[in-house]
Amino acid sequence: MTAPASDGRRTARFRVHRRKAGDTASRYDEFEVAVGPNTTVLDGLVEIRRDKDPSLTLRHSCFHASCGTCGMRVNGQEGLACVTKVGEAAEVTVEPMANLPIVSDLVVAMEPFYECLDPVDRPLIRNSETVPSELPDGIDAYTRYEDCIECGICLSACPIAGSDPLYVGPAAIAAAWRVVEEPRGLAAGPVVRLMDDEQAVWRCHVAWECSEACPSGVDPAGAIARMRRAAIAARARRLFGSGGGA
Amino acid sequence: MAGTLDRERPLAAPEQRRGVGGWFDPRGRRMGGFAFILNRLTGIGLVLYLYLHLVVLSMLARGPDAWDQFVDIALSPPFLALDVLLLVGMLIHGLNGIRVGLIGLGLVASRQRAMFIALMTIAALVALVGALRIFGGE
Amino acid sequence: MAIGPTTPAARPEPGPRHAPPFLGQVVSGAALLLLLGLHMIAQHFVVPTGLRDYASVIDWLGSPVVVFLEVAFLVVVTYHALIGVRAILFDFGFSGRTARLITNLLWVVGIVTVVYGVALFAAILNAG
Which residues from chain B sit within 8 angstroms of residue A152, using beta carbons? Predict the structure, then answer.
């Protein structure tokens, strides 16, 4: 279905998940989209909504992988649509993230994801990394935010989140681990106890899909493993009577 | 102050979750995901085999004729092929289990991919040697 | 069929505070690397045909050390198998009373399995 053009652009088929409130089933609509070597999936979707079907619902914001809004599945793999290139693909299947309620077409409800994060009380600023001693003119200081952009991609990729509605998910455990690693005035002990739960760290089966899919380098699977070690150490301390701290 | 894990609603309606099919769906999976699928499939297979094995062993209580008759059948090529399959399942589950155990305890998490490759290579080699022994007799 | 969040489910009870079954899985798994290896070698790889005939089995089970190891193997493999089954079942999100029921049922299955296995050993030795 690709057609070579003199400016290097060709046509690719976008197969897009569609489902509106009241629909009894999903369907896939197909669109032919002109793409170039740097065209992203988000570029294609925006063009579809602008020129072909204004009823297509999708979420996006920054266009440069820092807001986490455009998480979706492209050809079965989770990613941020704004930095996922169409590349040489003749056909691109675009679906909403899995394991979260669909609001419309490619948009999912993020509230259940945030509900898992809220109990952790995670801070957002990373104090542990130093800033360069020489700052550019006009810059007084840098603020280093945590890596997690709360896109929900890890939850979509996790095979257990697909079957267990009570599992808190990789993002929540990774956020909790950051509190243990860098408390910033919070008490790490209660966070470890919170995550030492059948529906938290002990539900993970080391599929590592969350870390593979994470667009922001959070490594939630590694965080889950380290949180487990912290939980075991805390249990050992309680067992041998040296206190219940982290 | 950390809150509680109690939540009032599940993540998504059952029809919107990938469910059990999502455990075994290979689309979009990477190495760790395939390791998870293999571990789960071999684990289920080995549980079924355990109980089958315990039932088969009851023939020993019926005396030499019953058991020796079973041994003759069990040494036929189709059964030997199943034995090779069993051996492969045990090797995959056991060796990947080492990886899952170490990583699950918070050790060597950064090496999970390399561990999987190394351990499955060992599994393949041992399975090959085992298969040759099973079909080759001595 | 409406899409979107479902109606609020019943508030789940907090998870159990006993030692995580994962630790038991790791310990039993490590033990099985040894016990299963010994079992496989003894039953299949030192025997010329790969399977012991009746006389060979009775002869093998004549040693108390062997019987102890085989019973230990049975206990450990049953524990590991049923903890694994429990882990798979809990991946469906059971909690509270249902979770406790599943765990208790699996304990019963495990005990019955081990009792059956030990009774079978006794029956084999008596028949031999």
Answer: none
The domain of C48 spans 23-127
| DSSP assignment string, B71-89 | HHHHTSHHHHHHHHHHHHH
- Smallest CA-to-CA distance from A223 within A186, A166, A185, A168 is with A168
How far out from the chain centre does Cα C60 lie? 23
Q: pLDDT digits over A37-89, tens only? A: 999 999 999 999 999 999 999 999 999 999 999 999 999 999 999 999 999 99
Q: Two tokens at C32?
A: 């099985």
If one counts the domains in chain C, the total is: 1
Interchain contact A101–C (C-beta under 8 A): yes
Q: What is the ipTM of this complex?
A: 0.87
Residue A94 structure tokens? 């675009």
- The CATH number that domain B31-134 falls under is 1.20.1300.10
DSSP string, B88-136: HHHHHHHHHHHHHHHHHTTSSGGGHHHHHHHHHHHHHHHHHHHHHHHHH
- Kindly tell me the sign of the dihedral angle through the C-alpha atoms of A43, A48, A51, A55: negative
What's the gap in Å between the CA of A127 and the closest CA on chain C?
Answer: 33
DSSP-derived letter for residue B14 is G
Which CATH number goes with the domain that contains C53?
1.20.1300
Rounded to whole angstroms, the Cα distance separating C79 from B105 reads 19
Q: Check if the beta carbon of residue B112 is closer than 8 Å to that of residue A208.
A: yes
Domain boundaries, chain B: 31-134
**pTM listed for this prediction:** 0.88
Q: Which H or E run includes A107? A: strand A107-108
Cβ distance C14 to B101 less than 8 Å, yes or no, reads no
Specify the pairing of strand A91-95 against strand A10-18: parallel
DSSP three-state, residue A206: coil
Q: Using CB atoms, pick whichever of B57, B61, B98 lies closest to residue C127.
A: B61
Q: Which residue type does A157 have? A: A
Amino acid in the structure at residue A127:
N
Answer yes or no: is C3 within a domain.
Answer: no
Listed in order, strand segments (DSSP E) in chain A are: 10-18, 27-35, 71-74, 77-80, 91-95, 102-104, 107-108
Q: Answer yes or no: do C20 and A205 touch at CB < 8 A.
A: no
**What residues are paired with A29 via a beta bridge?**
A16
Cα-Cα end-to-end distance for chain B:
66
Checking if the pLDDT of B121 tops 90, the result is yes
